[in-house]
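Handout, section 4.2: multi-component inputs.
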Amino acid sequence: MTDSTESPDLSRRGGLTRLKEGTYGGLFAACAAITLLTTAAIFVTLLSDAVVFFRSIPIAEFLAGTNWSPNPAGGGQAFGIVPLLIGTITVTVTAAFISIPVGTLTAIYLSEYATPNARSILKPLLEILAGIPTVVYGYFALVYVTPALKATLFPEMSTFNALAASIMVGIMTIPMVSSISEDAMSAVPDELRQAGYGLGATKFEVSTGIVVPASISGIASSYILAVSRAIGETMIVVVAMGAQARMPEVQQALFGIPFVNPADVLLQSGMTITVAMVQITGGDLTGGTLPYNSMFALGLALFAVTLVMNVISDIIAQRYREEY
Amino acid sequence: MSNTTSDDSLITTEVQADSNDDRAASAAETAVAARDLNVYYGDERAIDDVTMEIPEKRVTALIGPSGCGKSTFLRCINRMNDMIEICRVDGDVEFGGKNVYDTDVDPVALRRKIGMVFQKPNPFPKSIRDNVAYGLKIQGFDGDVDKRVEESLKGAALWDEVKDQLDSSGLELSGGQQQRLCIARAIAPDPEVILMDEPTSALDPVAASKIEDLIDDLAEQYTVIIVTHNMQQAARISDRTAVFLTGGELVEYDDTAKIFEDPEEQRVEDYITGKFG
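Output:
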């Protein structure tokens, strides 16, 4: 300030600055809009083609049908999603049984127990696991896991089977669980750990009683991401599980609840929703045919399942959130 | 801080002349003692050959400039320094006559006897009840938990404010209430010693003064060792004061009144009157 009688210059800066600011804002908004528009476009496409499909095949028949054979050549064309749903659920649940415990415990180890040195080596290694192409996992399941299981636990297992595929899907999603959970646990303020130790808690008590509850919403979202990833996984399954839409034998168990023997599903080949879609695109595909349109119905079903998963995860995260 | 040499007291605050003096008058057993204690962070010495005896059921204040090692000393008593990898402790810290650095001492068991309150209020993101009951839970307390929670909250002068909201989160309380919740949590397992690491430095003056009153009450049942930056606070609440100066040296340790009115060491007088540190 040179002259004290002159008031400071507070006037709005030139139009160029304002124009630049406006352009930046618009640019960023446009990028955000791309994702939004893509999602919307996908949804609309799925819905419109699925509607065409449901005009020929009633929704009830699609949802309750136990036979999936979209190819008209073999005779007896049928579009029942149940065998595919069983395949998808089998892979997802079995994979979750592997990825959730192993991933969570890995995350606790990395966040709470590992020395900084061990962490700096292990974390990048885990991220590499996440970077392996899924087709490699698929061949690994087919060439190593299945023969190993056959030689040891399940001699009656077929070459293409759900178990080996599920195990590899589970392993593939471990890094997703461990990495996101570890980030959530590391974000828990150190003061909370100190408080626990100050009260005479052991490392295990601090990890499980303080750190995990405080980061549960992050951990829950890692589970949902991993499960959603398993639902959508295609390549491992198509290579290792085969592509046979097999309907397992349904037994009438106690209380009249239909029951499927897990061994009948896990040790045999099967087909998931995603594999069914791949198979349709792999054939001589003509637009507008029934098999072509069924793909969109399947896509819509898959979309609905993952949407429900996301909503559930949001509810869980809200419900159990321990904010610090 | 002005140097009021005309007055007996070296700082403007009067040394509190109530219950503290009754307590100081009678001799007390030693609760915690350090003998030839040296602590190093890597090559740097944080505590320099400290020997001192801390009396039972008294408030002992550790004061000194930043980086003088007072917090390090405090954290040696319950072995919280164990978690700092580069920290090395040499010498003895005796608690009830037992060296806590003996190889047969489990730091977890030690910390169950010595509670700790931290600088920043750090309640768990759990309900008020669960916060207070946490120590009881991990220590396998088999008595009436609700009763103990109530007693502890009363002991921390928080009960009347929270008795109708025991199930709401501890984080919904104000900063001062959170710190009293942390004190309730620390006293719930009935420790013998309570360590406080600058417990009021993150609080406003009103909340801080409530904590100070509380510390005075706590000393009837517990040995309180408090680190503070605030010399008036040390003068107000403590029976004994230890002055650490840069380099981790314990320069003077005596009755609080003596330290603030007539210290032996010129360096202590300089520090207290604000000429240094």
